[in-house]
C-alpha cells in the first residue's frame, strides 16, 4: 500500500511541457506518464521548471493531448461501468476532429507514445476510410490521384474483388 | 457537382479542404490504419495513389502476393492471408480466380501458431480455423501449386492434372483426402506436411502411410509419428524430416530411423530433431533393427540440440555416418540452447541481437587477451577425442565425404563442434572443403590456427590448406592475428570459417 500512496503523492506534481511553437502546458504527472516519451524523461529527471520541449508537436494538438491524458489519468484504475461509459463518450467526442487535426494527433500520439490515443486516432482514420469509394477517400483526405488511367484500370482489375458491390459471401464450408 | 465513378452518386462533402497530409504519414502508421479497416476497404485504397498502391498488402489483414502475369490471364497466382472468411470467399468466387495456377491460402496470424506448438505440448491441437470444401471459381485443372495454412479439410474429388506442389501447414485433414489428392494429381512431385493433423491418426504409434510413388520431394514436420510410404518412390530426390519436441525418447528414436527406411535411395536428406541424443542408437540389436544403409544419400544435413557435456549427440552423428556410406556433403547444425519460442516477434529479435552482442563482446575480449600474449601456440592440441566417433572407421570418411559444414556455438575450447572439426580433418581422407561457423558475430581468430595446425600435422598427401573468410567485416581481425593463407602443393582441403548470420552461411556453401 505504501507504493500506492507514493504514486498518489507523485501524481500531484505538475509536469510542464513546451510545444514546438513555444507554448507551455501543464499536466499532472500521472497524465504525463501515459506518454512513453514523457515517462522516460521524468524517470531520467529531465522534467524541470523550464518544461520538457516537444520539438515536433505544435500547441494545437498538444493542448488536445494534454486534455486526453489528464482525463484518462484521472480515471485510470478501478473504473465503474458508468465511468467507463463516460470515458468512452469522452473519446468519441474527443476524436470528432477534422482530418488536419486527426493527422496531427496521429503523428503526435505516435511520437509521444500515447498508446490509447494512438489507437483512437488510428481507428478513427480507419472508420473514415471504411465503406467509401476511392474517389470519396481522395476527397476526404485530399489525396491526389497520380496514376495514369491505364495504371488505375490495371489496379482496379487486380483488386477487382475489393470494388465489387457487396454480395453475400459464398460459403466455403 | 462531381459524381463518384464507382457508384454514380454525388461525392460527400470533405472534412477539411485541401492538402493531402495523410499520405505523408510513415508506412507503419498507414499500415496500422489499414489493418483496422475492413479488408475490402483496405484493398480499395490501392488505387488512391502511388503512395497507397502497395501499403494495404502488408497490413496483416489481407495479403495478396504478387501475381504472375503473362499478358493473357491476369490472375496466375494468388496468396491470401485473410482474417475473415468473407474475403477468402470473395476472392475465390471471383471470376478472375478461374485462371489461378498457384493458390496459397491461410488465415492471418497462422504463421505464429506453430510457435505455440513448439512450446506447448498440446498434442493434436487443431488450429485449422477455416474449412475448405471447394475451390470457388478456381479451376482445379489449372492448379499447379496448392498451399494451405490453418485449414480444415481438403478440396477432394477433382482431378488435378497439373498440380505439382502441395503444401499443408497447421492443417487438419483426413488421411484419405490427402491420399485422394495424391492419386488425382499425376504430376505431383512435392508434398510438404508441416504440423498437419491427420484426423484418422489418433494414436501416435499408429503408422501414417501414404502411397506416392511419383513424389520427388517430401517434407514431414510435426510431432514424431510413424510415417512411411506404402510403395517405393524411385524418383525421390529430397526428403526433409523435422520432429517437434516429444518427451518419449524411444518413440522419437524409432520413428526417426524407421522414417528413413522408406527413403533408401534418396539423394538429399535434411533432418531436424530437437534433441540429438533422442536419436542416438546404441546396442547391437537396436542398431540392427533401426539402422539400415541409405546408399543413395549424397547430402545429409542434421540439426539439433546437444547437452554441453553430453557425448550422446556424437553417437547420433556416428549412427548417421554409418548409415550413409556414400555421403559427399555433410552439414551439422549443432546448438546447446533451446530456440527462442518468440522467434518471429520483436522480442525475439531483441534477444537474438543481445545474444549476438554478447558473442561479439566475448570474442573481442578473447582476441584482446590473445593479442597481449605473444603468439604462443600451445595447449591447442588438447582437443579431445569423441566417444562414438574417434577410433572407428566409417566407409564414407574413406571414400566419399568431400565437404563438411559445421555450425555450432563456440562456448568452450573443447566443445563438441571443435572436436568434430578435428575429427573430420583427421579422419576424412578425401575432404576437400570444410565450413565452420562458430557462432553468430563471433570472430574466428580463436579457432583458425588450431585448424591450421591440425591440417599441418596431417600426412603430406592431403596437407594443404587455404584459409578464406566469408565475413568481410572480420577480415581485419583475421589477417592481423591468424595465420595468413597457407598454401602448399595442392589444394586438397579448403576450409571456410564463417561468422555472421545464416544467410551468409548458406550463401557461402
The computed structural class of chain B is alpha/beta
CATH architecture descriptor name of the domain at 12-129 in chain A: 2-Layer Sandwich
Q: Report, as a whole number of angstroms, the end-to-end distance of chain B.
A: 65 Å
For the largest sheet of chain B, list the strands in their spatial order: 1-2-4-6-8-11-13-14-15-16-17-18-20-19
| Mean residue pLDDT of chain B | 69
Q: Outline of chain B, from the CA principal axes? A: globular
Enter the CATH topology name of the domain at 12-129 in chain A.
Potassium Channel Kv1.1, Chain A
CATH class value of the domain at 12-129 in chain A: Alpha Beta
The strand count of chain B comes to: 20
Helical content class of chain A: 55-70%
Indicate the structural class of chain A: mainly alpha
Main sheet summary of chain B: 14 strands, parallel
Protein name (chain B): F-box domain-containing protein
InterPro entries (chain B): F-box-like_dom_sf, F-box_AtFBL13-like, F-box_dom, F-box_dom-containing, FBD, LRR_dom_sf
Domain F-box (chain B): 22-58
Domain FBD (chain B): 395-436
Structure write-up:
The complex is a heterodimer of chains A (173) and B (509). By secondary structure, chain A is mainly alpha-helical. Chain A is 60% helix and 7% strand. Chain A has a 3-stranded mixed sheet. Chain B has a domain of 158 residues. Chain B is 29% helix and 18% strand. Chain B has 14 helices and 20 strands. A 14-stranded parallel sheet of chain B has the order 1-2-4-6-8-11-13-14-15-16-17-18-20-19, with helices on both faces. A two-stranded parallel ribbon of chain B has the order 3-5. In chain B, strands 7-9 form a two-stranded parallel ribbon. Chains A and B meet through helix 6, helix 7, helix 8, helix 9 and helix 10 of A and helix 1, helix 2, helix 3 and strand 3 of B. Chain A: InterPro entries: SKP1, SKP1-like, SKP1-like_dim_sf, SKP1/BTB/POZ_sf, Skp1_comp_dimer, Skp1_comp_POZ. Chain A: Belongs to the SKP1 family.
Amino acid at each position: 500500500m505504501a507504493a500506492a500512496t507514493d504514486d498518489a503523492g507523485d501524481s500531484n506534481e505538475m509536469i510542464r511541457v513546451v510545444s514546438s511553437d513555444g507554448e507551455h502546458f501543464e499536466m499532472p504527472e500521472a497524465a504525463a506518464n501515459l506518454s512513453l516519451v514523457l515517462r522516460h524523461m521524468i524517470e531520467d529527471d529531465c522534467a524541470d521548471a523550464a518544461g520538457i520541449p516537444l520539438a515536433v508537436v505544435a500547441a494545437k494538438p498538444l493542448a488536445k493531448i494534454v486534455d486526453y491524458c489528464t482525463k484518462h489519468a484521472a480515471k485510470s484504475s478501478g473504473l465503474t461501468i458508468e465511468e467507463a461509459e463516460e470515458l468512452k463518450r469522452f473519446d468519441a467526442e474527443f476524436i470528432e476532429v477534422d482530418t488536419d487535426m486527426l493527422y496531427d494527433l496521429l503523428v503526435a500520439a505516435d511520437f509521444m507514445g500515447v498508446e490509447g490515443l494512438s489507437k483512437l486516432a488510428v481507428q478513427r482514420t480507419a472508420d473514415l476510410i471504411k465503406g467509401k469509394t476511392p474517389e470519396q477517400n481522395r476527397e476526404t483526405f485530399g489525396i491526389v490521384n497520380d496514376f495514369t488511367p491505364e495504371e488505375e484500370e490495371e489496379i482496379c482489375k487486380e483488386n477487382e474483388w475489393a470494388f465489387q458491390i457487396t454480395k453475400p459471401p459464398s460459403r466455403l464450408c | 457537382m462531381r459524381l463518384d465513378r464507382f457508384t454514380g452518386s454525388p461525392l460527400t462533402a470533405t472534412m477539411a479542404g485541401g492538402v493531402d497530409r495523410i499520405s505523408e504519414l510513415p508506412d507503419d502508421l498507414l499500415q496500422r490504419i489499414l489493418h483496422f479497416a475492413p479488408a475490402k476497404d483496405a484493398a480499395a485504397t490501392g488505387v488512391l495513389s502511388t503512395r497507397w498502391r502497395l501499403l494495404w498488402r502488408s497490413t496483416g489483414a489481407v495479403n495478396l502476393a504478387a501475381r504472375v502475369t503473362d499478358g493473357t490471364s491476369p490472375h496466375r497466382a494468388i496468396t491470401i492471408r485473410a482474417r475473415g472468411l468473407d474475403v477468402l470467399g470473395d476472392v475465390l468466387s471471383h471470376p478472375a480466380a478461374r485462371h489461378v495456377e498457384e493458390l496459397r491460402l491461410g488465415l492471418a496470424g497462422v504463421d505464429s501458431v506453430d510457435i505455440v506448438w513448439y512450446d506447448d505440448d498440446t498434442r493434436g491441437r487443431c488450429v485449422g480455423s477455416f474449412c475448405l470444401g471447394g475451390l470457388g471459381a478456381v479451376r482445379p485443372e489449372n492448379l499447379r501449386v496448392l498451399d494451405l495454412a490453418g485449414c480444415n479439410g481438403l478440396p477432394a474429388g477433382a482431378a488435378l492434372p497439373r498440380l505439382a506442389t502441395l503444401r499443408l501447414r497447421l492443417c487438419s485433414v483426413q488421411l484419405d483426402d490427402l491420399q485422394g489428392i495424391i492419386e488425382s494429381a499425376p504430376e505431383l512431385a512435392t508434398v510438404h506436411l508441416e504440423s498437419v493433423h491427420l484426423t484418422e491418426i489418433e494414436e501416435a504409434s499408429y503408422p501414417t502411410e501414404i502411397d506416392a510413388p511419383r513424389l520427388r520431394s517430401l517434407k514431414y514436420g510435426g510431432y514424431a509419428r510413424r510415417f512411411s510410404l506404402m510403395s517405393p518412390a524411385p524418383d525421390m530426390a529430397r526428403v526433409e524430416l523435422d520432429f517437434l519436441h516429444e518427451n518419449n525418447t524411444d518413440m522419437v528414436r524409432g520413428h526417426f530411423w524407421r522414417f528413413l527406411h522408406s527413403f533408401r535411395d534418396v539423394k538429399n536428406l535434411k533432418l531436424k530433431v530437437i534433441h540429438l541424443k533422442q536419436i542416438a542408437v546404441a546396442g547391437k540389436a537396436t542398431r540392427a533393427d533401426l539402422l539400415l544403409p541409405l546408399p543413395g544419400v549424397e547430402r545429409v544435413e542434421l540439426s539439433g540440440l546437444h547437452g554441453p557435456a553430453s557425448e550422446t549427440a556424437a553417437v547420433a552423428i556416428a549412427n548417421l555416418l554409418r548409415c550413409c556410406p556414400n555421403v559427399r556433403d555433410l552439414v551439422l547444425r549443432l546448438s546447446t540452447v533451446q530456440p527462442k519460442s518468440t522467434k518471429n516477434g520483436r522480442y525475439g529479435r531483441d534477444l537474438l541481437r543481445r545474444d549476438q552482442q554478447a558473442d561479439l563482446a566475448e570474442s573481442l575480449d578473447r582476441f584482446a587477451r590473445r593479442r597481449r600474449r605473444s603468439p604462443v601456440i600451445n595447449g591447442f592440441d588438447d582437443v579431445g577425442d569423441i566417444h562414438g566417433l574417434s577410433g572407428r572407421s566409417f566407409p564414407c570418411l574413406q571414400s566419399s565425404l568431400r565437404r563438411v559444414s559445421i555450425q555450432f556455438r563456440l562456448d568452450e575450447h573443447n566443445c563438441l563442434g571443435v572436436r568434430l572439426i578435428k575429427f573430420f580433418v583427421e579422419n576424412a581422407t578425401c575432404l576437400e572443403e570444410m565450413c565452420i561457423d562458430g557462432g553468430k558475430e563471433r570472430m574466428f581468430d580463436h579457432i583458425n590456427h588450431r585448424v591450421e595446425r591440425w591440417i599441418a600435422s596431417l600426412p603430406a598427401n592431403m596437407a594443404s590448406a587455404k584459409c578464406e573468410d566469408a565475413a568481410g567485416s572480420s577480415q581485419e581481425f583475421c589477417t592481423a592475428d591468424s595465420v595468413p593463407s597457407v598454401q602448399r602443393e595442392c589444394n586438397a582441403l579448403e576450409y571456410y570459417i564463417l561468422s555472421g548470420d545464416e544467410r551468409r552461411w548458406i550463401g557461402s556453401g
